[in-house]
Amino acid sequence: MLINFRIFLLTTLFLQANANHFTFDASTQMSSAENWLHEEIPCIGDEIRFDSSMPVVAFMDHNVNVESIYLPKNGIIVFTDNGIDLGGDSNWQCAKDHLKQPEQKFYTSEDRHDTSFYNPKNWIPDKRFFLHMNQVPCEYDDVTVSSMSSAQIYLDLPVKVNRFRYYKRYKYMATQGKKRLWVTLLVEYGDQWDGGTERWKRKQNEHKQKI
After folding, report:
1. Do 87 and 123 belong together in one domain?
2. Is the Cβ–Cβ distance between 55 and 193 less than 8 Å?
3. For the residues of 140-176, what is the DSSP string, one character each?
4. CA separation for the pair 23, 124 (Å, rounded)
């Protein structure tokens, strides 16, 4: 029993001594091809649609010039601090073919778990380690969400970190037809997230009690 306690104590001290800082880096930028179905970004004059099967976070980081945008029922659209020009010059979109009808392009993730907290691809650590357990934040690590973007984090288990820093930003949020101001961060709790504020608060309180 004493040996096990010593091993546990040494492991804890080692983890504390090697505490790291992580920046969440899963892109939600609309100008990034990886956020579009089959990596097909909308050309000028196309239609933008959002995945209706899950909550959506989209960061409009540049001007958008399309025929129409069908807003998500559950989700957040974040704008840059300086705003954007809908219908203005857009250098990230392909040119419009006047002979073609507008095509529907879908802003969606191939897999919800692409935004998982436990996916090492979503984190930029200050210090890089080989083991998977060290490639995602633990309870001794600090976490930052970039101030120049937005974030969508998928959680299927409670997590604990030493310090969590995020930034507030004005945006449009659609939740069953209502408009709200919300923080940039959207956290999904497994398959139980339903876009409801009360459910979100209950889950948050449950996790605080467990930690």
Report:
1. no
2. yes
3. TSEEEE-TTS-EEEEESS----SEEE--B--EEEEET
4. 5
Helix (H) or strand (E) holding 75: strand 74-79
Q: Is residue 136 situated within a structural domain? A: yes
Q: Are 179 and 86 in contact (CB under 8 A)?
A: no
Q: Give the DSSP letter string of 77-142.
A: EEE-TT---BTS--TTSPPP-TTSPPPEEEE--S-GGGGBTT-GGGEEESS--SSGGGSS--TTSE
Domains: count for the chain: 2
Q: Residue 42 has which token pair?
A: 């909308």
In this structure, are 38 and 124 located in the same domain? Answer: no
Q: Which residue reads 């998982």 in tokens?
A: 116
* Residue-wise pLDDT tens digits, 145-188: 865 567 788 877 788 888 888 755 444 444 444 333 333 455 55
200 found inside a domain: yes
Q: What pLDDT was estimated at residue 153?
A: 81
| Token pair of 79 as six digits | 């704008």
Q: Which long-range contacts (CB under 8 A, 24 or more apart) does 195-198 make?
A: 195/55, 195/73, 195/74
**Are the beta carbons of 72 and 56 closer than 8 angstroms?**
yes
Cβ contact 136:118 at 8 Å: yes
